[in-house]
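Entry 14: structure prediction run for Nitrile-specifier protein 5. Input pasted below.
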Amino acid sequence: MAITQGKWIKLNQKGTGPGARSSHAITIVGEKAYAFGGEFTPRVPINNSLYIFNLTTQTWSTAETTGDIPPPRVGVTMAAIGTTIYVFGGRDATHAELNELYSFDTCTNEWALLSTGDNGPIHRSYHSVATDDRHMYVFGGCGVAGRLNDLWAYDVVEKKWVEFPLPGDNLKGRGGPGVGVVGGKIWVVYGFAGMEVDDVHFFDPESGKWVEVETTGQKPTPRSVFSSVVIGKYIFVCGGEVDPSDLGHMGAGRFTHEVYALDTDALMWQRVEDGFSGGDGGDHPGPRGWCAFSGGRFGGEDGLLVYGGNSPSNDRLDDIYFFTPCLD
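Run finished. Output tokens:
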């Protein structure tokens, strides 16, 4: 069945949370979402506190952490495997790209530095990550010498990095793409490669090969820095930047509110009707990009959590929404 509809719910927020920000990260472990990093003023990291949002009580708290606490950063990624969170890369207050990999144990509240320097992917920010039961995959981003198109996996059992073959010139280096694992393949969707692009590729670890696929249907326009999630065989993309600002990272580009789903079996896109009626407020995040987002469960349903981001007026946002697709 095609997914043609979905619904958004705006979550209440109690307690003292991170506040408005963009270029940050969030991930869900059980009934809690963990948020880290980001900026309120462009390119200025806010702090290195780890915030916890209880999805049941919808209350924020700040974690009391120990260990190797990561310094503040923007353009950072987080992903969870089991009860452990992995934080990689980003950009610090001097605008230097980073490549440290940290873990955070949600049972003990302890940070640990797992890799740095030449051990693992080179320095980057605004990259994308995805996970399966054993690996965190890191793709692309903005490196010291330009945009990247490399793919790595961190094996949480062997505790080591694995580098995969480069994709070649068809998959240009990019920031802000969608990355997801479907059917054992690592998919790369859209992104910014000097311009907004609309290509779709996957890497098959079994064959060791990259494949560019042709998609059909209601294809989204080129975009980047959108929120995305994998649910079943579908990759959902929500919002994002469709026209960059002339001011680069200092300004707001043109954002969209749209939601699309890619059926990775049929290689067909479908526009998802999600109740957007224009304007602000209500149970819809509206146009935005550079958000923190994570797949997870809320109210017993699989979906996408979206927190904050940048708005068309270049104002940082502090609201939280959860998107759930509906089978037609």
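Notes: Residues 279 and 286 are 8 Å apart (CA to CA). Will compare against the previous run tomorrow.
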